[in-house]
Amino acid sequence: MARLSVNINKIATLRNSRGGNNPDVLQAALACERFGAQGITVHPRPDERHIRYQDVYDLKSALTTELNIEGNCREEKFVRLVLDTQPAQVTLVPDEPGQITSNHGWDTIKHSTYLHDICALFKGEGIRVSIFVDPHPEMIAAAAETGTDRVELYTEGYAKEFLNDPAKAIALYAEAAKVAQQIGVGLNAGHDLDLHNLPYFVQHIPGLLEVSIGHALISDALYLGLEETIKRYLAASSS
Ligand SMILES: CC(=O)[C@@H](O)[C@H](O)COP(=O)(O)O
Ligand SMILES: NCC(=O)COP(=O)(O)O
């Protein structure tokens, strides 16, 4: 069973499209919690096109479940935000400026010294650290050397291939999960997970601790309503 952290970026995208406060990001996050979400994920980007830095401060003081802040830790503003708000978890993502969405994990071998130092900074504050990685055993092994608590497997590749061949889609991820378990690094996953591909992923990745899901979940909520959608994702993540 994996815990479900709802990524609310897309709610902020909708709000920002008109400049007012509709939909209200905080109210939506609290509703997610009320409907059973076990955490809330935000991924602020430097242009604040969806979640704004101020949203994160507001969320932190109101949420009762785990807050997970994802983002580019090479941005000074991001590091300050994390240290100020002290979330339960920070997920380090190697975004480039101007990226539409995240599209790769860290090269944990090349950036091992940097990642070691930034993990130490956050862990020293009592914040759990997760590093966003592609599903390659050597990246997971090197991530473990940085002192990170967890890795988050970047699942876009799985989601794409799942439509053609689920067994082929999961193979790399199952191997990566085995390595993470052997070396004692916790395992999260996210990106493009949805109601179709999530049950198979959870069933084939033992020890999966958390999935963070935004785009598909918020889209499904347009048809099903937020409460019913979260109920379905909770069932899928514990299948
Ligand atoms: C790291 C990751 O996969 C997610 O945080 C995802 O990229 C969401 O970010 P956007 O909402 O900006 O697409
Ligand atoms: N870490 C992944 C995440 O938070 C949400 O990704 P997506 O479901 O919006 O693709």
TrEMBL record:
Its main location: cytoplasm. Pathway: Cofactor biosynthesis; pyridoxine 5'-phosphate biosynthesis; pyridoxine 5'-phosphate from D-erythrose 4-phosphate: step 5/5. Its EC number is 2.6.99.2. It is found in: Cytoplasm. One of its GO terms (molecular function) is pyridoxine 5'-phosphate synthase activity. It catalyses: 3-amino-2-oxopropyl phosphate + 1-deoxy-D-xylulose 5-phosphate = pyridoxine 5'-phosphate + phosphate + 2 H2O + H(+). The record marks E152 as: Transition state stabilizer. It is an enzyme of class 2 (transferase). InterPro entries: Aldolase_TIM, PyrdxlP_synth_PdxJ, Pyridoxine-5'_phos_synth. The active site is at H43, E70, H191. GO terms for cellular component: cytosol. NCBIfam families: pdxJ, PRK05265.1-3, PRK05265.1-4. Belongs to the PNP synthase family. Catalyzes the complicated ring closure reaction between the two acyclic compounds 1-deoxy-D-xylulose-5-phosphate (DXP) and 3-amino-2-oxopropyl phosphate (1-amino-acetone-3-phosphate or AAP) to form pyridoxine 5'-phosphate (PNP) and inorganic phosphate. This is Pyridoxine 5'-phosphate synthase.
